[in-house]
Amino acid sequence: MSDALPYPSSVGHALADDAVLTTVARALAELRRGALVLLRSGDKAALVQSAEAAREGGLMALRRLSAGEPVLLLTARRATALGLPTTGQEVVALKLLDRSLERVLELADPTTTNARPLARPERGEAPQRLAQAAIDLAKLARLLPAALLVPLPAARAEAAAADGDLLSVTVEAVAEYRYAGARSLAEVAVARVPLAGAEETEVHAFRPGDGGIEHLAIVIGHPDPALPVLTRLHSECFTGDLLGSLRCDCGDQLRGAIEAIAQAGSGVLLYLAQEGRGIGLVNKLRAYALQDRGADTAEANLQLGFDADERIYLPAAEMLRRLGVRRVRLLTNNPEKVAGLERCGLKVVERVPHAFPANEHNRPYLAAKAKRFGHLF
Fold first, then answer.
1. One-character DSSP codes across 70-135
2. pLDDT at 142 > cutoff 90
3. pTM of the model
């Protein structure tokens, strides 16, 4: 996932960002509750519903409002996992031979138990820009990357938008949403929080402009922004950080980073709301279920229809800028974190290794991180 978009914070972005954040955040809430959203791209439009959150009433409304049959959108990765041809498209549209909600979810979710033979759906038609934006909305809503879509004629789309019952959002707003969220981050709280082994610690909370989940900057000691600051980017991991899961090394990395920064005298640990490499906790649990069936950590995300890593580093870069940090010594084994921060204008003067002993439960996970993601242990 590239961070290479117009990024530097400026007053000129503020009004546009506010509109993007408002409309897309509302669209995400609508999809999560199973409602319909009107998606628009120039003179083209479509009704969209999340495949995971679809309900019978919503499916009936989709057919009634469009006077047509919806197609099921899946990512090319999910279609490949189903043995379906993709013909080079990133999003595949399928006609549903069996239109039941149960069948929709079976096609969308590889963790469902499906005793029936998988009937090969027929290829359907959907404008690619609308199809891609529909999948992106599902991802942003932390739902499975699958959606039901029905293209609408221009006149019907205008009537639906004017009616006011359906929320209308553009593909351009969907594409810009995460970047607008990073630009809009505002520090909303700061407090002294003495930690075991790092008593001189402050926690700064940064909230995006749509009121979404906060990212945290854990500032240990008194970093000198004139010097390269020892920094760790840590994606939240409920299972590892809080429960002490042995499936990953996240808990070790979190506590080890606090210890390493404290020993160095000062530094910053960014605790980023990017669970499961950006796919969310529920989808991470689904990925675990696939790993138990033999997939590695990258393959599991791909089978679900996600990229192997959905994270972006703009929020981290913006938080560091707000803290006055421009140059860092980065605690990481992941070269992509180095590249991601530098794409955002931060200077990484040194990569500081950050590895911990494996256990019998996370040894395959660590091996996959090295083989599939290029982590350096």
1. PEEEEEHHHHHHTT---TT-SEEEEE-SS--HHHHHHHH-TTS---S----PEE----HHHHHHHH
2. yes
3. 0.90
The pLDDT-based confidence of 4 (bands split at 50, 70, 90) is very low
Question: Can you give the residue range of the structural domain that contains 246?
Answer: 185-274+311-373
* Structure confidence by residue, pLDDT tens digits, 264-279: 999 999 999 999 999 9
* DSSP secondary structure letters along 186-235: EEEEEEE--BTTB-SEEEEEEE-TTS-PPEEEEEES---TTSPEEEEEEE
Q: What is the CATH number of the domain that holds 218?
A: 3.40.50.10990
Q: Which residues are catalytic?
A: 309, 311
| Rounded average pLDDT over 246-268 | 96
- The pLDDT > 90 percentage for the chain reads 69
For 297, 299, 336, the CA distances from 294, given in Å and listed in that order, are 10, 9, 26
In terms of domains, do 175 and 190 share one?
Answer: no
Q: How far is CA 6 from CA 183, 186, 226, 302, in A?
A: 10, 19, 26, 28
pLDDT of residue 249: 94
How is residue 269 written in tokens? 């640990």
Q: Do 164 and 191 share a domain, yes or no?
A: no
Q: Domain end: 115, 149, 180, which one?
A: 180
**Number of helices (H) and strands (E), helices first, in the chain?**
14, 14
Q: Of 180, 210, 241, which residue is a domain's last? A: 180
Please give the DSSP secondary-structure letter assigned to residue 145. Answer: S
Q: Is residue 283 part of a domain?
A: no
